[in-house]
Amino acid sequence: MEDFTALPDLASRAFGGGVVHANDEFFATADHLVLPSAPGHAPKTFDHKGQVYDGWETRRRRSPGHDFAIVRLGAPGVIHGVDVDTAFFTGNFPPYASVEAVALPGYPGPAELAEAEWTEILPRAELKGDSRNLFGVTDGRRYTHVRLTIYPDGGVARLRVHGEVVPDPALLPKIFDVAAAEYGGRVVDCSNVFYGHPQRMLMPGLAQNMGDGWETSRRRDDANDWVLVQLAAPARLRFADLDTSHFKGNAPGWATLTGLTADGDQVELLPRTALRPDTPHRFPLVKGPAVTHARLDIFPDGGMARLRLHGRADQDHLWARMRSCLEP
Fold first, then answer.
1. Can you give the residue ranges of the Allantoicase domain (predicted)?
2. All domains in the chain, ordered by first residue
């Protein structure tokens, strides 16, 4: 099975994911489940309810039943696997968990979600404490929400829902950032990931610091570094944003952009162009045919905070992808 953890976390707060409802949050709120940061822990740190945990923790059950939290995916899509992370929960983790999913239009609230027909994508499974519990999913349908159920109670630090983003074409403009991870753009190959994975360049928002981008090791040869991005859909690209924010002594000196068509032809989009440190750049691109991938070459090495590729996407492709994952 492919390592699904390399795929985007559809539930992440970075995409706008959020907890819609939880039946119990006595010790720690369920909002922690979707935080993009790794869970942390400060031992012997207490508030009025006890030890402070960076996760979701329910009270001890004294009656039959179980606890649950419903998460709205920030990026709806096809789920390939879930990570029920119980980091730092040792004597208080749930021994079992299950996950269900549903696809609903609009922005349903707790009442509508309670009445929905949920599909079980992870049957009740055993969990280990203070561990990442990884479970593959082979459903193949597009979902908008997931429900994590723990048996009978306890604490979970993070819920990661890894998969392929499938946006609703009806909610997209004709021209948008077709490289954006939130719409399905993803890195499929690159030359170097020493300091940071290039997938970070495709994340929403501005980079927060130098660690929130792609940075290569220092080259000691005559070659250069590069990254290949598969676009959300074939598109005619018009503008590129090459953002070197926070990279001051380690920004690339120059960059080029090359498009790849469905037939494998190469199209020059941006000739070799000088870049400035710590600067958001925008460049108009050479007009050409629709491309499915874009390759960014940086010379000779360095760091890039964000890469945006704005273009007119193939609407037929987007709708076909959407229809292909509506049924099992």
1. 16-165, 184-313
2. 4-165 (2.60.120.260), 171-315 (2.60.120.260)
